[in-house]
Amino acid sequence: MKSPSFHNPCIQVTNIKVWLYDFEESGDKGLKEYAFVTMNINADFTPIFTFNTKAIFVSVVVEYETTSYNRNQIMLWSTTITNSSTARIKSHKTLNRYSLHDITPSFNGVNGTYTLEWNVIPIIGMIKYGRADSNDSKFTCAFPNIDGSATYK
To answer: Could you tell me where this protein is found in the cell (predicted)?
Structure first.
């Protein structure tokens, strides 16, 4: 599916902080790294909102590789657009809504690529998937060390 606006939708990560947490109460044993991501999101979905659009589900996904697993994807943030008047997203200093921690205990030496994705949910018909795939609309950066913070511009 084509890009939803005349300019490319984009995601920009401005800050990542990584801390150690003990997830023992959730059944995981031992300390694991947990990341907090601050990002700016800019997209206009009005051009793809038609008479047959019931909703557009928009999400920010981070993809990364580790030595144990080739491809990892975690959804960080999402929203549902239900009408064309709210189809423009301009969000500044947004924190990840969903937890960011890995099945392995560490993000050490891992680069993450942050991408904006969407699903157009029609009134009648099939759901269509879209993704901001151009290099200008993705953001790649490394996770900082434990108890550290990295700021990106």
So the answer is: Endoplasmic reticulum membrane
Nearest to 138 by CA among 119, 114, 111: 114
3 within a domain of the structure (yes/no): no
Structure tokens at 143: 């996770």
Number of domains in the chain: 1
Please write the tens of the pLDDT for every residue from 43-84: 888 888 889 999 999 999 989 888 888 888 989 999 999 998
What pLDDT sits at residue 5?
43
Give a three-class secondary structure readout of 48-85: HCCCCEEEEEEEEEEEECCCCCCCEEEEEEEEEECCHH
**pTM (two decimals):** 0.80
96 is in which domain, residue-wise?
10-151
